[in-house]
Amino acid sequence: AIQLTQSPSSLSASVGDRVTITCRASQGIYSALAWYQQLPGQAPKLLIYDASSLESGVPSRFSGSGSGTDFTLSISSLQPEDFATYYCQQFSSYELLTFGGGTRVEIK
Amino acid sequence: QVELVESGGGVVQPGGSLRLSCAASGFPFSSYGMHWVRQAPGKGLEWVAFIRYDGHNQNKGDSVRGRFTISRDNSKNTLYLQMNSLRPEDTAVYYCAKDRVGYSNGPLNMDVWGKGTTVSVSS
């Protein structure tokens, strides 16, 4: 199965900071990667699909990039409502989906 | 509006069975593949299973293969997860989720999620 490794596992940042989260796949997955945001006690929310396509309704401060094995999620200017846990998910392996371990973004 | 509502969770002993349901509304259910995703307490997300829009193809994660069965009734707009031979490590919140792309042959990603139902496996 394709493994996804996210880094860092947690980070502390201030409102207005630029934040970057990395997701590395154990083998090439083209652009078959999505990013989700999960607020405490809530279901996940899709942010980015196909590595860099912004889901409808998601603020433009969120962006995704990468292909092959290395991907990033960036938040250009962190807002109070962005403090959450973020997960990457691959769908290159057509029969078996996997999620990364998550990155918790906390208030500094 | 688009909505998914899970039900059927509860407390069950190891080795027992449980069936989860997910009622869908606000979109053409029979046009979209559906997923189950779970989250153990304090842990990350784990994809459990996918069923194609017409029910003719199912995919499951390694940890549940042979024990869990995903199914759907398009006439009732309802998704199911039959869980047998339950283990303590199956304890989690189980989310129902809609695939983003209509008429997809396989699992892609999830653009609508329910609020989840809690399953606890304990003696």
What can you see in these coordinates?
The complex is a heterodimer of chains A (108) and B (123). Chain A has 108 residues and is mostly beta strands. Chain A is built from no helices and eleven strands. Chain A has strands spanning 4-7, 10-13, 19-25, 33-38, 45-49, 53-54, 62-67, 70-75, 85-90, 98-99, 103-107. In chain A, the strands form two sheets. In chain A, strands 2, 4, 5, 6, 9, 10 and 11 form a seven-stranded mixed β-sheet that branches. Chain A starts with a strand and ends with a strand. Chain B is an all-beta fold and 123 residues long. Helix content of chain B is 0%, strand content 54%. In chain B, a hairpin with a 6-residue loop joins strand 5 and strand 6 (58-60). Classes of the chains: A mainly beta (108), B mainly beta (123). The interface between A and B is medium-sized, with 23 and 23 residues.
Unreliable spans of chain B are none
What number is the mean pLDDT of chain A? 96
Give me the secondary-structure category of chain B. mainly beta
Quaternary organisation: heterodimer
Task: Enumerate the spans of chain A where pLDDT stays under 50 for 5 or more consecutive residues.
Answer: none
Give helix % range of chain A.
Answer: under 10%
Order of SSEs of chain A = EEEEEEEEEEE
Strand content of chain A: over 45%
Number of alpha- plus pi-helical segments of chain B = 0
Largest interface: chains, residues each? A-B, 23 and 23 residues
Rg value of chain A: 13 Å
